[in-house]
Specification:
The complex is a heterotrimer of chains A (223), B (266) and C (240).
Chain A: E1 2-11, E2 14-24, E3 29-33, H1 40-47, E4 55-60, E5 63-65, H2 69-72, E6 76-79, H3 91-102, H4 106-115, H5 131-143, E7 149-153, H6 161-171, E8 178-182, H7 186-192, E9 195-200, E10 203-209, H8 215-221
Parallel strand pairs in A: 3-8, 3-9, 6-7, 7-8
Antiparallel strand pairs in A: 1-2, 1-4, 4-5, 9-10
Chain B: H1 6-27, H2 41-68, H3 71-103, H4 112-124, H5 127-132, H6 137-165, H7 182-223
Chain C: H1 17-35, H2 39-57, H3 64-85, H4 88-92, H5 95-100, H6 107-135, H7 145-171, H8 176-199, H9 213-238
The chains are: A alpha/beta (223), B mainly alpha (266), C mainly alpha (240).
């Protein structure tokens, strides 16, 4: 599903990601830990095809990046820090726009609006909604096109426990999709993971099966 | 690698410039109408031609950069455009002096070359502010290349439009260069060669200097140890900064330069 | 799971470019209708500028070269307002990323945005040209109108293409409001030259004459060349 071998992504003379290698099978979950600036978001963006790898080999969904990025695009769902939605448009209008860009039918939009319990407020412009609600719509956007690979950047931020439960079937372990999650929460993160990657200043400080990892080691990353 | 041949080129440039000066002052006849001032023609027109070619060259180098993603092409495009901009200022100044001498005004709207130059200058003057306004070096290079290509295509179109719209005070000098007497033609050609060589030499100097600085930075990085992340925060810069792998020695061939994977020969 | 409808596409799972352009244009016009950020501002600016010109020139009516000049300068500067706002919503609200993640040809954004800008320019002219005829223009517009429209549309195409290109370039830089016009104005000088020279005979004091064909050809050539170049380089502005 995902094969990384010596991935490097630079920012000028600095290496935002340095020699990252890992292998993730279909259906598995990779959780990435690390302090701010460690490269977690960069890694997710490279996997989503938004950023080109500068060197190393990157294979996502059996396709090499950046050459075959076009073939990967419609099959990956990204949930980043930004909701990627227009504030002046309503939830329904936003989702319909994304649906059209991905060649997805409108019934799917209604289906997801119901799944995140936003149907009754689907007409209002997003700027009138709370952050938690916007996050729910963003999650709907991320899974709208039924992607094979989910890339989630701190997905539970801004969600209250009820909403968190609500979106479980969409982006949680039960969704049975391949997932890469960036997380700040050692406890919760570990419980979901099959594979754990710890990043520090762009370099992999820790890469192991979740079962072999001690929460102490993760806390170490932040010191 | 850039430094090779620099001395030969410099000597050739000085030599040809010397010959050109000699021809201009002692060989070319005095022009009937304008007298001595007309000799500025041998400076102004070659400057104009070389500048325009420089801008078009910049566009071609930029195309190469976008095709290969090799930052060295962006470096070359930057130097070509930057040097052409300086030559453009020189063109405008010499053109203005000539206008003052011939037609009594420091600026004339009726000379299409001068007018087109002003517009082209105004456009390319935004090249460096554009670069400076983008912090991410890779994006800076890419956007600069896009600009260079659009601007390069603009140059001929602009000349066409201005030419069509201008009424002429005098018969065009550039157009009439084929009617020049043989002595003037020879002087003109040699002057053109001299300015072209000057352009080439100055560009080569600048490229060599930048490359050397990049190598110096690479060696410093290596000395400081391969720590993770960056230690010295880079200031914002409009100049493209090459990142070389520490393995590239002063005489290394370009193939092991900028895009070499880490650890190669380290 | 639900049915996915994929429209005509070349490569696997790709969404057709026409469909993408339609979706983008729809979103674009919807956002503009909600926020009214561009078109009213541009139109108001144009009318106000005509008033300023009246006082600055101290003339009650203009014709010929003068009229053409005032009209084109005003339209151009009003267009700059639209250009400045073209990609702001996308840049600030993550619209670029959303588009870049979709399986569509990147040039769809160029075409959609250029069409949107063209639409804004046409609405601008719908307001500005009659206002000009009312406030400043000496001779009446009636006879000259059809040919004037042709010149305006040809010029608008050029402004739309260059405007979109420059807007995309400028929006992700630090001095975005400044760089846009600074880049666009020199690039649009040939459009001003051709547009003004073509319009001037139409606004002649005694009678309207036909615009010389060479200016229409220049505009056409400009549109073609920059249209092609924009199409070729636009992708490089979007990707990272």
């Amino acid at each position: 599903m995902i094969e990384l071998d010596g991935l490097v992504r630079r920012y000028g003379e600095r290496e935002a990601l340095s020699d990252v290698s890992l292998s993730l099978a279909a259906g598995q979950t990779l959780v990435v830990f690390g302090p701010n600036g460690a490269g977690k978001t960069t890694l997710l963006r490279v996997l989503s095809t938004l950023l080109r790898p500068h060197s190393g080999e990157v294979t996502v969904l059996d396709r090499r990046l950046p050459q075959d990025a076009w073939a990967v695009r419609g099959r990956v769902g990204l949930l980043g820090h930004e909701p990627l939605l227009y504030r002046e448009l309503s939830a329904r209008e936003n989702l319909r726009f994304h649906a059209r860009l991905h060649g997805v039918g409108e019934e799917r939009v209604e289906e997801l609006l119901a799944a995140v319990r936003m149907r009754d407020r689907a007409q209002e412009p997003l700027r009138a909604l709370s952050r938690g609600m916007v996050q729910r719509v963003a999650i709907a956007r991320a899974v709208l096109h039924d992607p094979e690979l989910l890339l989630l950047d701190e997905p539970r931020a801004n969600l209250d426990p009820a909403a968190s439960e609500l979106v479980e079937p969409l982006i949680g372990a039960a969704s049975s999709r391949t997932r890469v999650i960036s997380s700040h929460d050692p406890g919760g993160g570990l419980s979901e993971a099959d594979l754990v990657l710890g990043l520090r200043a762009g370099r992999p400080a820790l890469l192991r099966e979740a079962g072999d990892v001690d929460p102490e080691e993760i806390a170490e990353l932040y010191r | 690698m850039y430094g090779r041949g620099l001395r030969t080129l410099s000597i050739a440039t000085v030599a040809v410039m010397g010959i050109a000066l000699a021809l201009v002052f002692f060989y070319a006849p005095l022009e009937a109408e304008e007298g001595f001032l007309q000799k500025i023609f041998y400076l102004h027109v070659p400057l104009a031609i070389v500048t325009l070619c420089g801008f078009v060259l910049g566009a071609l180098l930029a195309i190469q950069h976008l095709r290969t993603r090799d930052p060295r092409w962006d470096m070359r495009a930057y130097v070509a455009i930057h040097m052409s901009l300086i030559f453009a200022v020189a063109t405008l100044i010499t053109g203005s002096i000539w206008a003052r001498g011939s037609w009594g005004h420091w600026w004339v709207w009726s000379e299409p070359t001068l007018v087109s130059f002003l517009i082209v200058f105004l456009l390319y003057a935004t090249y460096q502010p554009l670069r400076f306004a983008i912090e991410d070096p890779e994006r800076q290079a890419r956007y600069a290349s896009v600009f260079a290509i659009v601007a390069g295509a603009f140059v001929p179109l602009n000349f066409l439009a201005v030419r069509l719209s201008t009424e002429y005070l005098h018969p065009r000098v550039l157009g009439s260069s084929s009617n020049l007497p043989a002595k003037m033609q020879l002087t003109f050609l040699v002057s053109l060669l001299a300015i072209a060589l000057l352009y080439g030499t100055l560009c080569k100097y600048e490229l060599t200097a930048k490359h050397t600085r990049a190598q110096l930075r690479a060696l410093r990085r290596r000395l400081a140890g391969d720590g993770a992340g960056s230690r010295t925060p880079q200031g914002r810069s409009a100049e493209p900064r090459l990142t070389l792998s520490p393995a590239a020695g002063p005489y290394a061939s370009p193939a092991t330069g900028a895009s070499a994977p880490r650890g190669a020969g380290a | 799971m639900s049915a996915k409808t994929k429209t005509i596409s070349g490569k696997e799972g790709q969404v057709g470019t026409t469909q993408a352009i339609r979706a983008l244009l729809r979103k674009e016009l919807l956002v503009e209708l909600r926020t009214l950020e561009s078109v009213p501002g541009m139109s108001l600016f144009a009318v106000t500028t005509f008033v300023v010109f009246h006082f600055a020139l101290n003339q009650n009516s203009v014709s010929g070269d003068e009229a053409a000049g005032i009209l084109w300068v005003t339209l151009l500067f009003a267009a700059m307002l639209g250009v400045n706002r073209l990609f702001v919503a996308d840049e600030d609200q993550g619209g670029f990323d959303a588009f870049l993640l979709a399986p569509v040809d990147r040039s769809a954004m160029l075409l959609a945005k250029a069409l949107a800008l063209l639409a804004y320019l046409l609405v601008l002219e719908l307001v500005a040209v009659p206002a000009f005829g009312l406030l400043l223009l000496g001779p009446s517009l009636g006879q000259a109108l059809p040919e004037l429209l042709v010149v305006l549309v040809l010029a608008d195409l050029g402004v739309a293409v260059i405007g979109t290109l420059v807007a995309a370039l400028a929006v992700r830089t630090r001095a975005r409001d400044l760089l846009g016009p600074l880049l666009a104005l020199p690039l649009l000088v040939p459009v001003v030259i051709a547009g003004a020279r073509a319009t001037s005979p139409l606004l002649g004091l005694t009678h309207a004459e036909h615009p010389p064909a060479r200016w229409l050809l220049t505009l056409g050539l400009y549109d073609l060349v920059f249209g092609l170049i924009a199409y070729a380089v636009f992708d490089f502005l979007l990707e990272d």
